[in-house]
Amino acid sequence: MNAETSGLSHNQRKFNSWSTAKDSYRLLALGLISLFMCSILPLSIMAPVPLVMAFLLFGKFRGFLLIVGTAALLVALNLLSYLPSSSSGGLFSQMMGETLVLYFSSVLCAFSVLEIIVKKREPSVGILRNGFLLLAIFLLGLGLVSHFSHFSILNYFRQEIIALIVKFKAENAQLLSGPGEEVRELQAYLENPDKILNWFPVIFFMGIFLGLWVSLFIVLRSLPLWKHKEAYPFTLEDLKKFKVSEYMIWPLIVALILFIGSDYGLPKWSEVVGESMLYCLGLFFFFQGFGILLDFLTYLKIFGIMRSFFIFGTLWMGPKYLALLGVFNTWFDFRKFFKTNTNNEGDRI
Fold first, then answer.
1. 35-58 residues labelled b (16+ CB within 10 A) or e (exposed)
2. Which end of the chain is flanked by fewer CB atoms within 10 Å, N or C?
3. How sure is the predictor about 341, in pLDDT bands with cuts at 50, 70 and 90?
């Protein structure tokens, strides 16, 4: 009997050791996926997701350990790229620096998503609250860096934009020499880097809230994987019903007046301010319209590949129409015209 018990105990220890090693590999894979996403700008918007999943699946300690380890690796690679003996060149140094900034931004976004889940905040409220909190943190950080290091973020981006313009002109000389109104508008933008720089605050604002929304969307889509670890009372359906306050329509009207008012006597800067406000406010109405689109596709019983085709086609060709749909949803409840399935089939994107 003792020998049998000893054998079972040995097998249990073997299984626990194998399970721990397997978890370690999964945790490492999540960290590497996040780093890979940070190295590619379009994918960096989803980089917080693996970090959030690491915390939810493997606990706080191992989650913090993963972040510290990956951050230390990035810092070490970034420092090594600046050594005189390094043969990597300036391009690699610049890439590592950008990846490091994107990774730390992803960590902050991941903590914001985790705060929504752990504190059991309603998704819409959590995104708005933590989004503006993140915005304040980033602005404070940029202000402190500029004050103490005399580093100008605007000058940095201006130089980056000029370098990208030179590269774009060299690679697309034939395109820029062609006819058409769109080509002339593109040439006008390329000749005025400051006009492109004016979009930086808009991209910055939209990047924060879009990153939060996308990350929370994917994490809630994966709810069956982690709901046994963390009891979150909301689902993807609640995020799909994202709706801003009716009072948000008034800032939108002010933005529209500023945008078109430059042609009727208002200062020229009002057009820039109005257009920036339209894009920033329009993002929240886009979230609202996107949820309506998903429910409408569910009502039509469009799933699988066709559903993905409709969603990505709409996102590619008409994000402004989704924002407009969200605006009209302020006065008209489109969902009352169709019933959504409650079996979550429509969440397959």
1. bebbbeeeebbbbbbbbbbbbbbb
2. N
3. very low
